[in-house]
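Bug #77: duplicate submission created two jobs. Keeping one. Sequence:
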Amino acid sequence: MGATFTLSEEIDVVVKKLIEQEKDFKILSVAKIVTRFRTGTWYTRGKLIYAKTKILSLYERFEMDAEILILVNKRMWEHLTDQQKEALIFHELCHIEASVDKNGAPRNSPKMEDRSSDCVVMISRNSSLL
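Kept job's structure:
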C-alpha cells in the first residue's frame, strides 16, 4: 500500500503552542504552516522517519495556500507521549528559519536551514522537552 495523507488538528495545536511559547519561534507566527499525518511505511536509507519538514515550492504554495509543510508519521505519533510529541514538533520547527530583511522584519519566504546545533541549545533551555 502506498502512502496516504490526512489533516491533523492535533499537530496544529502543538505547532501553535510552541510558536507562542518559544521566543525563537515567534517569527514563524506569520508563516502559513500546514500539517499532515502520513500513513504507510516511511523509511529513508533504512531508517524509520518520524517526521519531515518541507519548505514548499511556488507551485505547492499556490496549491496548498501555505509555505511550510510538516509531515508526521501517524503510526509513530500514536505511540508517543504528549511530551515526546511536543519534542518531535519542536525539532521539526528548528529546521525552519524565517527569512528577514536587514531590519529583522519577516520576508515572504521562509527557508530551510540545518539548525541542528541551535535546536540542541533551544531544547537544553527548555528542560520540559528533555
